[in-house]
Amino acid sequence: MTDYLHLGFSALQRGDCQEALNIFRRAQEGQLSARSFVGLGEAWYRLGDLPTARWAFHKALALDPAERDATRWVARLDSLAVPLVKGGQRRCRFRAATDFLQLNEQGRWRRFFVKGINLGLGLPGYFPGEYPIVGATYRTWFKQMEELGVNSLRIYAVHPPSFYEALADYNEGGGRLFLFQGIWLEPPEQNDFRGTHFLAYLRRQIREAVDAVCGVADFPERPGMPHGAYRRDVSPYTAAFVVGREWESCAVKAFNESHGRRIGSWRGSFLEIADGSPFEVWATECCDYLQDYEQSRFGCCHPVTIINWPTLDPLAHPSESTYEQGLRWQGIEVDSGTCSENEDVESFDPAKIVTRQGGGFFASYHVYPYYPDFLNNDDPTDHHPYRSYLQRLKDHHGRQPVVIAEFGVPSSREPTHWQKNGWHHGGHNDAAQGEINGRLMTDIRDVGMAGGMLFSWFDEWFKRNWVFYPYELPADRNPCWFNLQDAEQCYGLLAAYPGYPGKLTNLAGNRDEWRSAEVLYEQPAGGPAVAFNDGNDPARTLRRLSAQHDEGFFYLLLETAGPIDFRRSNFLLGLDTCGAATGETRLPCGVNAWSPLGLSFVIHLAGEGQSRILVCRSYDKYLNEGTGAVAPRRSDLGEWVMMQNITNHRRISKDGSRFYPARVFSMSGLRFGSLDPRRSDYDSLADCHVSGTMIELRLPWGLLNITDPSSRQALWIDPAGKTRTTTGIAVIAGSFSPSGKGLQARTTGLESNLTDTLPSGFGVSAVRRYQWAGWSHPLYHTYLKRSYDVYRAALALIAE
């Protein structure tokens, strides 16, 4: 059993104070103790959050008035002088000019090409609105960001005061990192962007962001919002304000229609628009309000933009019919009164917004290479669709600066949207992630954009992708575990990886990494149950099967008596995740054998390129989606299927003349490699590693239909619900000699073609089930992915 208190204080010694917070909280899941609060207090103190540190030390004393360390820490905090707040000189050093932003340095304006990165808030174990990141962590990240080669970072909303303090300290200490301050806006009720309550909320969000940047804000504690005293002026290090988010087409369409789609003009103090739709006029007024407020209160104003994306772009996309049209072409009638989130039914054209004075306006878009489908379908002959789309966008905007405020690909195990060049939404190891990101940024530069902001800095576990979110349940526990399958959780250059202080196993043949694993089965020395006497019996002799887990994966280690040669020995591992009374019992590959319990999954280990994980047919999400039943039914028919996911549904062009096929990817193939970056076979997406007599497996929880390992929930869709609590994972193993004909077993001449089994003879009473305790505070560690270095090399070739 892990000693979390010892682990937490070890983390403090290593300087991993942000990670230590989760470790001490994990310790408190078992029992509150004075020592755990001392550890929390020391972590917060080192991170720079003195008020919270003081609270923690007093909590320790409440539990144990004789706690010496807590007493010393309280005395130390009481003796600290209140630091003087550094003053600031409010300055606006940026402006939107022709084609690019410009920066004023030493009295001269020069071009500033944005090489930015997006920074989120959701550390493992938290949603963004909990604001878990503490000051010293920001300082560490800022240094790593500048070493990467970025010159700016974008945040989506106001962060706590410690962010602005850290940014001011970093730049005043010689750093050079400029801020794009986001202003987050939730969509209005009933899509009324001019509703009285929504406008009041919008203007409050704008004022609070400007005041926080200029260091004159005091926010009380509010649910889901930052609070505290903002006293550091970072206006000299601020490049621009970024208003809003990706607006849903339904909301914009409904708003325009509610105002009769009247085309109008509007002239403000700083911006104006002619021939704008109701939404475009509203967007212009928002941005003008921000600049007017900043100018009137602080004497200058920064450039401003409002976010857009391809779904609302002003370009024509003949390949993208609506959802309703696509169904009608197939003879299916739908309710046209229901608004579906179609990708090309509405436009928002920021090119119409013109600067009158002040910091100016620039356009910004989130543009990924794989979404929407029209990026790859509009011109089937185009071999560079991403660059072509950017060029069309730039041509439309003319000399107005255009910043691609989000782009990038994730390093997830599964692709969740197809792209023509292979730049899918996921399915890339971290080296490929860096290479593709570099090519995307180069395209952004080459077409004359004003810059790009990579998404994103670190992996955020709370996020969910449309392919997998129906199976990450309960949703409110999503931050508690990591899903390598989910592309949305894997965009970062900084990995937030399960376990502390490092990976539980590196898939590198290191037996020391399995010392704390649970041994499920172990057999004494001797040969296999069935011998061929061909010199390869030791490789088919099963010695030991062990299991362990962390917040992201279920791990298995299968050990044999002799070195493994997949030409002479194959293996089957059966997994029961839901209960012995359900699932498939007949094993695949012609072994003519039955499992002693119902199985949900079978892993066939046959070497690189042929190994796969199969699911029983009734438990496959792809085949049973929409039936109302995804649960392993009892069967002895051997109905094992490959696991797949559909990433792109079939599309039909607007005129009905062209069909674009659906895209389906397999999830079943097992990838061989090591997670140790020092090895030549390193692959961040490795599932399996073979070394001598050891086969190590890393299986994402989601691949096993575990919807939340932290509360032990397994997928089970029936009229009663969508999940059930699992009692653990039972595992059995068998070996066989491959026949060389397909994937079938060689005949033993006996009833079964298995050569050895764990447990011996598949005795029902001997089957072991791996069980684990739940958690609410995940352990994790961070490290820079290989994509960091690859992308850094690409940025070095792009001039600012």
TrEMBL record:
TPR repeats lie at residues 34-67. Gene3D superfamilies: Glycosidases, Tetratricopeptide repeat domain. Keywords: TPR repeat. This is Tetratricopeptide repeat protein.
